[in-house]
Give the backbone structure.
Amino acid sequence: MLFNSVQFFIFFPIVAVLYFVCTHKIRNNLYSRILLLAASLFFYACWNPAYLLLILTSVAVTWTSGLLMEKAAEAEAGAAIKKRLILAASLAINLLILFFFKYYNFFSDSVQFVCSKIGAEAKLPAFSVLLPVGISFYTFQALGYSIDVYRGTVKAEHNFITYALFVTFFPQLVAGPIERTENLLPQFKVDHTFDYDRVTDGLKLMAYGMFKKVVVASRLALYTDRVYADIAGSSGTAVAIGTVFFAFQILCDFSGYSDIAIGVAKVLGFNLMRNFERPYFSKSIAEFWRRWHISLSTWFKDYVYIPLGGSRCSTARRCFNLFVTFLISGLWHGAAFHFVLWGAIHGFYQVAGVITKPARQLILRKTGIVSEDGKTKRWWQFVQAAFTFALVCFAWIFFRASSTADALLAAQKMLLCPKEIVQSVSGLLHGTIGFGEGFFRPYTLGFFKPTLASFVVCIAVIAAVSLATRRKTGCELIKEKPAFVRWFLYYAVTAAVFYFAVDAGLFEAQEFIYFQF
């Protein structure tokens, strides 16, 4: 069931009404949890009921492991070893399930490819299975619980229904945010009654998230899909524009999902962590990853990077830890080499940033760009943000392309952009190209000018909202406006969503991008 579907617009109001009836009339927290758990399992079963067995297996394994580790900790002899073995079993079972459904064919193809190159023969069985939606998200959330119990930072949850709801909670089940045990699980033990301000704030977040997905992301996809479906036939200029458009498409697609998820949870009374914080205003790659997919970035930091040694080690070891963490992050995003390369590129960015940091700081202080008290010139901050955005966009090529070969071809074509622009301008000046279809042909791709203009308007709207919400949230800003301004915005957003969802035929044309992970 998609958030941007008629089914969800029927499903969610029913769940919300029943939940508030439970919290106001029945006032039994167990019934409230059972209701939400049933709704969450139904929500997931709408994709494939058979895969409920997988998610319930993950729930049962990690819940049991938590209880066993708690019991082992009470024993005087061999407690540490027992806990370590229980954690290893929990990790192994969950990761093996994830490996089989998401990575087995990638592993099999890779082994056979390597063997063919060295003249050996390897025949591994092939399996054609549908990737369970959200498996990477709920697996990581469940594993985070097991690791937290092992470390002693949280206590094992004894109530199976409460823990099952923590893993399967429908707003963030299939694409995050990947919640932490200490934040979300205790919230299920309290009934959340109806609160007008909280509910309306949640609905506003849902509306804006839907706007970002249906109006902006799906709109920009018209261009990016056409470019990346025919990279060989597209000009370098079109590939470059398509890549920039994709940067905003994936931002609006994924942050739109996160906004809807956070909004849905807020309506019901639950607080999910913020997943995006204006990432394209970052002034370094390290800062970008503190602002982009925050729940996953912090998960990798706490459960991969720090256990590897983090930054409290030699520079060489720190660089190794960073690079390995981003390689794993790339593989988490997809079972394909171009995703691994995407992770490797970001790992290289991070390593380069660590190695060059002392020299860069020295140069900036010597040139006066950074003062003695650490303040940076405003114009240099713009340069940093622009350079960081360019680096991120280059890496997005390997994320968006359907193969490594396509990604390399797209990167090669983008290098031809300056040459194409010079040729177009030269042709215009010499009269061989007219200021019309001939001049704009390298990037029009057959789209009419109003359509191309709408792409730019979409990006401008998102950029303007991001700038306006630097210090206050959108909900806080809207509350400060007069009633006629607030209602104008509500109607404008709602009308835009329904226009593009129904009249333009985009209502269920696209799933959210991160569903494939």
User: Anything to note?
Assistant: The chain has a mean pLDDT of 87. The radius of gyration is 25 Å.
